[in-house]
Amino acid sequence: MLVAGVDVGGTNIEVGLVDDRHRVRERDKRDTPRSSPHKIARTIVKMIEGLGDVPSAIGMGIPGVIHKGRVLEVPNLAGWDDSFDIVSMIEDHFGVPVALGNDANVGLLGEWLAGAAVGVDDVLGVWMGTGIGGGLILDGRPFAGSRGSAGEIGHVVTHYGGALCTCGRRGCIEAYAGRRSLAAIVSSMVDAGRHTSLFEIQRHEKKSKLTSKVWARALEEGDALAVELFDMAIEVVAGGIGSVINMVDVQLVVIGGGMAEKLGQDLADRIDQQARPWILHPSPKLKFVVAALGDDSGIVGAASIGRARLLYT
């Protein structure tokens, strides 16, 4: 049985057909439309149709708060509110069951089923991309909380009254470590006279924004501003992770998302090193690892919730 997994991010949409052994058989990747959720839905339809086989079910991960199959809030996608019913739209088009989850939650679920978190009962996932997403596995079960917003580490406040976040609040981790926020900081510092090669690399790579690839190259080349801001991002993320571990006492932290794909285990190791001083009593088994499935984490996890929707409803 092939199930379509859809991972909608702030930068890219990734779609794949996944078999019963969590292997991605066919895939597609396109830029995320910025104009409206309706354009995103139409893009998803075209991408699934382009995979060839008609899936038995569809699972989707969206970068927002999801409760009982509905989107409550999507800070990083313009014009999306709880009135837009993407599930019904996709179901009506394909005539198969559709499930909806948070993108970081399904990304961690993919790693728990077939990647770096297999066999671990207590896991924190932190996805570093356009924003900062998070998910939890507790006592061997995915944990979404009472309203679907558990694990939203990007909106843990570390700087009270601090920088404005895309969610409208101030001082969130995402305001200091999400790529969109970092891009705004870079622009402000360039306007104030600082030099950086980030925008030159962006043009050379023919990117429309400061992507993870652009940041990775700037860091590799030792761009002073990129290094300074990314050091800040790691410090803030690590402090937030330390606080979360003090609350839920996980034994594994999986670092995923675009930055993890480009920087690899070195990123997880740096976060590990900086988080340790903030942890009251870490488990002797505590490890920090980079996501093993890369781009496929979200596809595999999304497909699994689609498969569950088909089998258990």
Describe this structure in words.
The protein is α/β, with parallel strands linked by helices and 313 residues long. It has two domains: 123 residues, Nucleotidyltransferase, domain 5; 171 residues, Nucleotidyltransferase, domain 5, CATH 3.30.420.40. A five-stranded mixed sheet has the order 3-2-1-4-7. Strands 10-9-8-11-12 form a five-stranded mixed sheet, sandwiched between helices. The longest helix has 25 residues. The radius of gyration is 19 Å and the shape is globular. The protein starts with a strand and ends with a helix. The mean pLDDT is 94.
SSE layout and pairing:
Layout: E1 3-8, E2 12-18, E3 24-31, H1 37-49, E4 58-62, E5 65-67, E6 70-73, H2 86-94, E7 98-102, H3 103-114, E8 123-128, E9 132-138, E10 141-143, H4 174-177, H5 179-191, H6 198-204, H7 212-220, H8 224-248, E11 252-256, H9 258-263, H10 265-275, E12 287-290, H11 296-312
Parallel strand pairs: 1-4, 4-7, 8-11, 11-12
Antiparallel strand pairs: 1-2, 2-3, 5-6, 8-9, 9-10
